[in-house]
C-alpha cells in the first residue's frame, strides 16, 4: 500500500504543463542539412506571435506512450514524431518509463499556422520540466528543433534567429529582441482551414531537388544582416521588403522541387496582388509559410486602414490578428 502510494506521489510530481506561441518567419527555414536531426540548411529569423498557443501537459511514469491532441488520440507518424522527442529527453534524464501527453491548440493545426512550432516548443519545456531537468533556453531550443525546426525559435519571445550550424549542438535559436521591442501586427487571412497534403517535414526533404536552392541560400545570407538591423532600428519598410522577397524565394524552391510543391491557392495570390496595390497608402507586407494562408504585417498606425480593406473582401471569422508574444512558459493549470 505504502509502495503504491509513494509511486502515485512520484508520478504526480513527474507532471508538468507548458505553453508556447507559434511564430512567423521573416527569413524562412526551408531544407535540412541533416533531415533526421533537422539541422537546417539556412539560418532563419522569426517573430513569436500571440495569441496562437499550444498548451501541453506531460506526465512521466506510464508503461506506454499515449498522446492526445485536441481531444483526439494521435497515432501513426504523428505519434512517432512526438515519441522520438520524448525518448531523447528520457535518455538525457536517465529515466526508465514512458509518458502521457495531452495537448490543445488555440488554432487549427496543419494549416501552415506553425502548430508544430508551438507544439514542439511546449513539449520540450513540459517534458523536461516534468523530469526535473532545468535546461537553458538554448538547450530547450535544440530539443524543440529535433521535433520541428521552427519550434526552436518559439522557445523565445519576440524576435529570434535559428542558426544553421554543421552539427546539432551548433544549430539553436537565440533572441534578437524581446516582444516589447516593436509593436507589429500580423493579420492572418485563413484562405483554407484544411490540413495540408504535404507536411513541411516531407517538403524540407525536397528542397535539394530544386535547381535554385544555392541561389536562395546566397540571398538568405545577404538578407540576414539587413533583417537583423531592420529589427533593431525598427525599419518597417526594410523588414516588409525582406519578408515578401524571402517568402517568394522559398515558394520558388517549393514550386521547382521534384515533385513540385504548390502550397499557394488562387486566393493566396489574389491577396498578394491586392496588398501591393494598397501599398502606396497602407504600409502592409505579406509573408506565406508552407500553406495557402497569408500573414499581413503592418504597424499600429496602419492597422485600422488595412483591416477595413480586408473586411470588404473577407469575413471576420477568416481573420486572426496576432501581436508579438512571449517565449515558452510553464503553467500550474494541468490538462489532466
Ligand atoms: O518547422 P517546420 O518543419 O514546420 O518548417 C517550417 C517551415 C516554414 O514554416 C515554411 C518556415 C519557417 O521558418 O518557419
The structural class is alpha+beta
Largest sheet: 12 strands, mixed
The set of bound ligands, ions and cofactors reads: (3R)-3-hydroxy-3-methyl-5-(phosphonooxy)pentanoic acid
Give the overall average pLDDT. 94
Radius of gyration: 20 Å
Query: Stretches where pLDDT falls below 50 for ≥5 residues?
Result: 1-5
The percentage of residues in β strands lies in: 15-25%
Percent range for helical residues?
40-55%
DSSP helical segment count = 10
Secondary-structure map:
Layout: H1 2-13, E1 15-27, E2 32-34, E3 39-40, E4 44-62, E5 66-69, E6 72-73, H2 76-93, E7 98-105, H3 115-130, H4 137-147, H5 151-154, E8 159-162, E9 173-177, E10 185-189, H6 200-206, H7 213-233, H8 236-255, H9 266-278, E11 284-287, E12 294-298, H10 300-313, E13 319-324, E14 329-331
Parallel strand pairs: 5-7
Antiparallel strand pairs: 1-4, 1-14, 2-3, 4-7, 4-8, 4-13, 5-6, 8-9, 10-12, 10-13, 11-12
Residues 25, 28-29, 44, 114, 116-117, 148-150, 200-201, 204, 289-290 line the site of (3R)-3-hydroxy-3-methyl-5-(phosphonooxy)pentanoic acid (PMV).
List its salient traits.
single chain, 336 residues, alpha+beta, two-stranded antiparallel sheet, 10 helices, 14 strands, 25% strand, globular, disordered N terminus, binds (3R)-3-hydroxy-3-methyl-5-(phosphonooxy)pentanoic acid
Amino acid at each position: 500500500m505504502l509502495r503504491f502510494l509513494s509511486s502515485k506521489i512520484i508520478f504526480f510530481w513527474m507532471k508538468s504543463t507548458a505553453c508556447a506561441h507559434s511564430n512567423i518567419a521573416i527569413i524562412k527555414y526551408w531544407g535540412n542539412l541533416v533531415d533526421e536531426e533537422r539541422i537546417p540548411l539556412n539560418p532563419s529569423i522569426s517573430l513569436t506571435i500571440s495569441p496562437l498557443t499550444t498548451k501541453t501537459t506531460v506526465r512521466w511514469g506510464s508503461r506506454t506512450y499515449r498522446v492526445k491532441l485536441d481531444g483526439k488520440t494521435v497515432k501513426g507518424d504523428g505519434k512517432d514524431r512526438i515519441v522520438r522527442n520524448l525518448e531523447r529527453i528520457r535518455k538525457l534524464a536517465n529515466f526508465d518509463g514512458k509518458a502521457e501527453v495531452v495537448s490543445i491548440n488555440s488554432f487549427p493545426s496543419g494549416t501552415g499556422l506553425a502548430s508544430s512550432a508551438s507544439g514542439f516548443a511546449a513539449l520540450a519545456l513540459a517534458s523536461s520540466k516534468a523530469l526535473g531537468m532545468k535546461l537553458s533556453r538554448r538547450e530547450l531550443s535544440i530539443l524543440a528543433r529535433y521535433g520541428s525546426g521552427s519550434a526552436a525559435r518559439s522557445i523565445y519571445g519576440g524576435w529570434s534567429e535559428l542558426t544553421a550550424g554543421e552539427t546539432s549542438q551548433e544549430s539553436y535559436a537565440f533572441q534578437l529582441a524581446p516582444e516589447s521591442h516593436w509593436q507589429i501586427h500580423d493579420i492572418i487571412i485563413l484562405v483554407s482551414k484544411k490540413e495540408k497534403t504535404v507536411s513541411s517535414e516531407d517538403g524540407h526533404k525536397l528542397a535539394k531537388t530544386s535547381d535554385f536552392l544555392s541561389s536562395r541560400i546566397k540571398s538568405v545570407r545577404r538578407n540576414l544582416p539587413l533583417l537583423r538591423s531592420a529589427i533593431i532600428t525598427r525599419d518597417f519598410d526594410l523588414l516588409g521588403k525582406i519578408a515578401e522577397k524571402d517568402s517568394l524565394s522559398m515558394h520558388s524552391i517549393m514550386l521547382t522541387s521534384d515533385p513540385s510543391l504548390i502550397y499557394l491557392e488562387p486566393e493566396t495570390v489574389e491577396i498578394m496582388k491586392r496588398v501591393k496595390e494598397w501599398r502606396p497608402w497602407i504600409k502592409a507586407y505579406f509573408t506565406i509559410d508552407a500553406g495557402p494562408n497569408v500573414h499581413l504585417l503592418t504597424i499600429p498606425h496602419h492597422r485600422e486602414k488595412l483591416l477595413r480593406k480586408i473586411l470588404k473582401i473577407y469575413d471576420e471569422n477568416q481573420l486572426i490578428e496576432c501581436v508579438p508574444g512571449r517565449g515558452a512558459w510553464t503553467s500550474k493549470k494541468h490538462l489532466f
